[in-house]
Every structure is written in C-alpha cells, then in structure tokens.
Amino acid sequence: MSQAVTRSATAGSGLLASLDPLLREWLPRQRWFAGKGRPVTGFSLVAATELLPQDGKLGLYHLLVRAHQPLPAGQGQAAVPHPGDCYQLLIGVREALPPRLAPALIGHVQEGPLAGRTVYEALYDPRPAEVILEALRAQARIGGLRFERRAEIRPDLVPRLVTAEQSNSSLVYGDAFILKLLRRVLPGVNPDLELPLALAREGCPRVPAPTAWMTAEVAEDSYVLGVLQPFVQGATDGWELALRGLAKGEDFSAEARALGRATAEVHTALARALPTVSLGHLQLQSLVDGMSERLDAAAQAVPALRPYAPGLHSAFTALADLAAEGHTWTAQRVHGDLHLGQCLRAPSGQWSLIDFEGEPARPLAERRMAQPAVRDVAGMLRSFDYAAHSASGPAASDWAAACRAAYCAGYAEAGGRDPRTDPVLLRAYETDKAVYEVLYEARHRPDWLPVPLAAVRRLAAGAEPH
Prior knowledge:
- The protein has 12 helices and 19 strands.
- By secondary structure, the chain is α+β, with helices and mostly antiparallel strands.
- It folds into 2 domains: 5-230, no CATH class; 236-460, Aminoglycoside phosphotransferase (APH), C-terminal lobe (Aminoglycoside 3'-phosphotransferase, Chain: A, domain 2), CATH 3.90.1200.
- Helix 7 runs antiparallel to helix 11.
- 41% of the residues are buried.
C-alpha cells in the first residue's frame, strides 16, 4: 500500500480527459447510474488516487468523478445546468484483458497518460478487490482515502463480485464479509454507516455491525464510500423467500410476524441510540403539505391517478385535522426504505435488516431526519402487496392481507404498540408510499402500474390499512 499516491489536480485532470470518451459510453449503461435518459455533457474530477502503479502489469485508480448532465426540462423551460452527481469508480489498467475479465471492459485508451492501455471495472478482478481489503485491515491512509475498522479482519479471504442487479456494488470476501461500495456518493454523514454503528453500540442483533469502512476527505467534505459487514452465509432475502412461498402456495404469515418483531426491535434500539422528537401541529402540517404536493405532482404526471386524487387527499387532511386537535406523534430515526428485499433470513431463522441508506434519490439531510416509525411499517405493508402481484387471483390477495396483519401483530409483540391502532397516521403514510409507487411504475415499469393502483383504489375509498 505504500506505493499508492494521490494524483495532482493537473495529472488527475489529464487522466480523466483520457478516460472521458470511454466513460461517456460506459457509465450510463451501469445499473447504479442515477442519470439515465439524460446525456452526459462532461466530467469533472473530485479526487483521484493511484492504488497500484500502472507501470506494472496491473494498475488501479480510485476516482471520484462528477458527471455533468442537464436537468429534465420543465414545462415551457429549457433544460438547466446541474452540478452533476458524484460517482465512485475503481478503474483497473492492463495491457490487455484476459477472457475472464471481458464483462468488465470499459475500453481502450487512445491518448493521455494511459494511452495504449485497456481500462476496466476493477471490482471484477480479485487483485484490486484484495487491495481494498488490505487497506481496511491496515487502517491505511492513502491520499484522501481513509480506511477504518472496529474489529479484526482475517487475511487471505478470496473476493468475488456480487453480480445481481443493485443500486451499488458489493464484494463478498470468502464467506466472512460483504463490502458494500456506494456508487453515487454525497458529502456528509451517510445513514448506511451511521445507523448500523449506532445499533451496534446498542447491541442490537438484528443489524450486522460494521466491521470496517472507507471514506474520502476532499477539501472540507467527507464522503462515505463503503461499509464492510459480516456476511450471513446461506441467508435469503425476504423478497425471494416470499416469492418462493407464493409459488408453492405456502403460508408466509409466520415469517411476516417474525419480520414484524425484527422491525420493532430495530426501531426500539434506534430510539434508544439516537434522539427522538415530538411532532406537533406545525411539524405535522409541514409533513402533510409535502405529501399533498407529491400527490398533486404525481396526478399531473399520471392520468390514471387523477380520479382518485380527492380521496387520497382525504388521507392527508385527516392527519392534519388530528394534529390541529392537539394530537402529537413521536419521530425517530428509521430505516427509510424498508421492504422485503432489505431483509435477510439466516438459515437459523433469524431475520436481519440491511441497507440503511434510505431512498438514494432523496437529499442526505432529508434521509437523516427523524420520522414516525410507521413510515417503515407502511413500506413493508406495500411490499407484501408487490410480492402478491407475482401470483394471481383471490388467493394472492388473501396472502397479502394475512401477511400484513401478521406483520403488524409481530410488530406489536416486540414494540408494545400495534401500528393499526393509529389508522389515520398509517393510512397517510401508506398513501404517500403508494403515490410514489404509481409515479415510479408509470415511468419505469408500466406493466406493474396495476399493483399500486389497486392500493390507491382502496386507500382513496378510506379503507384503513389491515
């Protein structure tokens, strides 16, 4: 690791200029690229660190690169400039790629400091993956990169890239650890590290405790780049488990109940570990205003939503009315994007919650705000509906209803309060989530639009969550 250097701004800019034409083609094709559908007009370098010297057979660069794209044009307005999202890239450099690394190809550099070399996504290659783990073990300081750990890491763990589609990238080391590398990075405290560390201090067994993490210090800013956690060998995520059960016609309510207990335990630990606040009339009115604005924007964009808008607004006004009467609610730190895919069941039957990043499209400050715990509950209730969509007929609907009821019952067992005893708050949050889903599906997966629209019909009619 002693050979690693940080490139000067001039040298780094020359490196980026040589990669620019290749990145313009490669970056938008990546699953984790957030700016799909808009052209990349250029790049600017945030930081560049050489982790392996490219004068050998293998070079490795760690780059933080800002991709410049126009914002979507508003009605009657031209697209406006945008500072651009910052992405973490690990670029491998070789004279030629062996066949095993063909899927990792970015391209062949024509000019600049890497002219004549082949560059590729380094995470496919075991040696660069080993370099990252070595840095974490050594608690290295490499240029602006900082590698920290709070527990021992065994050497000689064989890395492999997780190839399943996800919004970040993950490496598994042996069967001991999994490293989640954030791709779109923002300066500031990231809840994906902050909350698991807080839960570890509380001794909460429902969330794998961070073993190590990596950050970047750039000028006055700090970026969380990745988190290493224990790998739960043989674990299955809740989404896969639910679909498997549905396909076999098996009851899932016992698992849903256990998952409800796990969620409540995490919420209880978060409320102990981090400050809670009381939401009164003014705070609730601001929250309701945000929900109403999102509904209006979604109804404008998705005509199928418009007939239900008045009924959906009633879910929000009912909450505002309660607040005006003097009702208050407790807000705390929450998961922020909870669904079946964010839950793992170990072979022992123990459920764990993962991925505390929140909704990546939301500003970091918003993701770190205290919110009613029912927001996570509403997300999970919607997730049961989505799983049921993989099957068809009344049996699937009954399956979802049974899971929703069991989840709430399990939550009450561990948390002391059934979310259904506050139906106005739960309906408002489930409505807000369903509106978000309608907009998402209309834009990205029109075939799935009937799933949230079915919930919209129920919620607009005033039906309480069950």
